[in-house]
Amino acid sequence: MSPGNNPGHGEHAVTIFVNTREFQWDKREISYEEVYNLAFPNEPLNDGDVARVEYSRGHNGGGAGSLQPGGTVKVKENMVFDVYVTVRS
Description:
Layout: E1 14-18, E2 21-25, E3 29-31, H1 32-39, E4 49-58, H2 59-62, E5 63-67, E6 72-74, E7 79-87
Parallel strand pairs: 1-7
Antiparallel strand pairs: 1-2, 3-6, 4-5, 4-7
């Protein structure tokens, strides 16, 4: 069904996009860590790597913003997430 397998979003899952890939999500919220894991499954961050998670098409009139480690955001149908990894030198 979906990576977000805990009930709680209501009667159905919503479609979200992470780095242009489509996912079904059935939780009301998604965390920084969950978005990162959808973008880069089985690829933990290395020491010195930094992931930036940005979103658009959220609540409140197309809400856009960014997630920090440990943060969450409420999901909405067709919400878009972009995850960028950079290496600190």
